[in-house]
Amino acid sequence: MGRTLQNTMINLGLQNACDEAVYQLGLDMEELEEIEEDAGLGNGGLGRLAACFLDSMATLGLAAYGYGIRYEYGIFNQKIRDGWQVEEADDWLRHGNPWEKARPEYMLPVHFYGRVEHSAMGAKWVDTQVVLALPYDTPVPGYMNNTVNTMRLWSARAPNDFNLRDFNVGDYIQAVLDRNLAENISRVLYPNDNFFEGKELRLKQEYFVVAATLQDIIRRFKASKFGSTDSVRTVFDSFPDQVAIQLNDTHPAMAIPELMRIFVDIEKLPWNKAWDITKKTFAYTNHTVLPEALERWPVDLVEKLLPRHLQIIYEINQKHLDHIASLFPNDVDRLRRMSLIEEGGTKRINMAHLCIVGSHAVNGVAKIHSEIVKTQVFEDFAELEPEKFQNKTNGITPRRWLLLCNPGLAELIAEKIGEDYVRDLSQLAKLHQFVDDDLFIREVAKVKQENKVKFALYLEKEYKVKINPSSMFDVHVKRIHEYKRQLMNCLHIITMYNRIRRDPTKLFVPRTVIIGGKAAPGYHMAKMIIKLINAVAHVVNNDPVVGSKLKVIFLENYRVSLAEKVIPATDLSEQISTAGTEASGTGNMKFMLNGALTIGTMDGANVEMAEEAGEENLFIFGMRVEDVTELDREGYNAKMFYDRLPELRQAIDQITSGFFSPEEPDLFKDVVNMLFHHDRFKVFADYEAYVQCQEKVSELYLNSKAWTKKVIRNIAAAGKFSSDRTIKEYARDIWHVEPSDLKIPAPNEPRDAAEKTPNGTAA
Fold this sequence. Notes:
Elements lengths: L4 H8 L2 H10 L4 H5 L11 H15 L5 E5 L7 E5 L2 E5 L12 E2 L5 E5 L2 E5 L2 E5 L2 E13 L6 E10 L14 H6 L1 H5 L16 H24 L5 E2 L2 E2 L4 H4 L2 E4 L6 H12 L4 H11 E4 L10 E3 H7 L1 H21 L4 H7 L2 E2 L5 E3 H7 L3 E4 L2 H11 L1 H6 L4 E3 L6 H7 L2 H11 L20 H26 L8 E6 L8 H17 L8 E6 L7 H18 L8 E6 L4 H7 L5 E4 L11 H7 L3 E4 L5 H8 L5 E2 L4 H10 L3 H7 L1 H12 L11 H9 L5 H19 L2 H13 L6 H13 L28
Parallel strand pairs: 1-9, 12-13, 13-17, 17-18, 19-20, 19-22, 20-21, 22-23, 23-24
Antiparallel strand pairs: 2-3, 4-8, 5-8, 6-7, 8-9, 10-11, 14-16, 15-16
Helix pairs in contact: 1-17, 4-31, 9-10, 9-12, 11-12, 19-30, 20-21, 20-27, 20-29, 26-27
Subunit structure: Homodimer; enzymatically active. Interacts with PPP1R3B; recruits the phosphatase PP1 which dephosphorylates and inactivates PYGL/glycogen phosphorylase.
Cofactor: pyridoxal 5'-phosphate
Protein name: Alpha-1,4 glucan phosphorylase
């Protein structure tokens, strides 16, 4: 979520008033804002997408709740020591959190372990361990519409009789200390991005948030006029009309068997009725196609932790496979491919398959990704129910990612086209008429230059390096992962360095290359990549021949509040994943909206950015998905590229020889060995096209006016990438709810005083 103070002031229309009031108290609002800790309760794009969606849902007047876990320790703080990443605990609640309110009156029990008893009355889950879920509510204000939604985060608490009820005459002190075991569930965020780690505590976290949330939803449904009771029993027929649950990846997939357990075991609905309601309630968003990221839980673990849920999953699978066998008799391989249970070695539950079977809608997060989902990853399921599969291209909230982080640009745009674009970003298209307006071109360039100067000062303060603010700010910030190919960027840096040294008198367009992002603590290769970047930076930044022509900075502890500083100052946005690996990306959209040009592959939402702005206004290079597939078919031979490309060979030989690590010459042998022998992401195959494309970037940067025209065309084409548009599509195509642009009257206004909002209808 990042910080909340400035976002709240903007959405409430109070920023100027607060700035002025704080100034009159002799304080500086910006200094105050810097004191607030980021709420870093997710890993990367997935968690930030949820935050943007919450902002858009409130702004569109949807009655929506965001549910999650109130981690005591969020994503680790990253320190760079001697070029290596070192993790520190993120004790973000140390000074308290003024934005949350504990709601102990809504505390709920969550059960684990135990066993299942079957009787004529049905199944009963007994002898369980109980953990209490304590909700904390954080307000989510819409933009200037007096709507405030709720983000409800669950914290784990041990019941007061924990370890004391069971004939435990024994150690009272130890029993109280053991309360930690229960409360550890919400202690810490697992720091993996795009990687599945099948740990028991992680499964406990996933079920904990699901079980508490579903009880909360059902309590709210029963309290509403729709949860009518027939004598004693609630009638759930209208449940899917009143409740829509979106599964943000497979992490909350246990919600499907859990809702079935509630309906069948507790509410005593017949199976088929319960299953019909369940399917109509859930929809699933897929966020990755990397096989190592797909959740596949061992059956033995689920059986121990959630025995009733395993039975329900088996039952769902049996009915699912019976259905397929009736459509495709004798096709045993299809049954194996489509089963929720993977046999062979340890039996596992494929959570994505569970989500597809248990949902009425499945979507990818960019056109190209949704196609890959349909035609490759889940092709059997799409063949069965093509109408179930959709696309919903991701978006970003223009409130945080323009108004808040880039007030200069936001104001300049408002001067030209008015302020309505903040709620309807498609209006940015009106900027096309100013693409040849010399004054506007100069103003856009001036705002960028001011942002660069401000960020350069920040860098000099934090990193003690002198930055040339007129150099091109070339920025690559995202989680560190092989598929995102920070290594390819690193090879380009080495290539630029070698070119400067080869001919120091030749014209070179000065660059400041900024790379930032966290590596999962257990991801050895990602940590080596960080060390390599820092080793290269050390050599480049201290070479007098290079001087101010090239500087390399690794941005420590990349997070939302740092993104808000670096993105508005960026000239060139690096979006260089191997085609077919980045589901969408959202950083790409933030840079586009903030006046950077993109160098990127035809991957994720880059494809649609090129479609909107015109491919000639992005720097697109490299293999397309088809080329990658073809290269896989014929076999990728990295050495062939090494042998053919002298500059690539030189760069690799320098890494191998210890040019960048003279004290430990073979420090990077694992990295080089990977690049030659098991590089799934084909860095060498795109190196030449990347370097050539970067030459075109430098050439254009020399012509400030031509560069800025492309910038304006990009900003004017960024409207599609508002999360407001994304959420309107979810609301229309999946949730079947109507956004309301009614402005609720302010608390100090009479109830009938809601005026029309600029694009709205009368109350």
